[in-house]
Amino acid sequence: MGNLFDLSGKTAVAIGGNSVLGASISKGLAEHGAKVAILGRNLEKANQVVQEIEENGGTAKAFVADVSSRESLEKAASEIEQWSGGWDIVLNAPGKNSATPFFDLEMDEWDDIMDVNLKGIVVTCQIFAKKMIEQERKGSIINISSVSSTTPLSKVFTYSVSKAGVNSMTQFLAREFAPHGIRVNAIIPGFFPAEQNRKILSEERVQSIMNHTPMNRFGEPDELQGAAVWLSSDKASSFVTGALIRVDGGFGSMTI
Question: What is 2-247's CATH number, 1.10.10.10, 3.40.50.1980, 3.90.640.90, 3.40.50.720?
Answer without folding.
Answer: 3.40.50.720
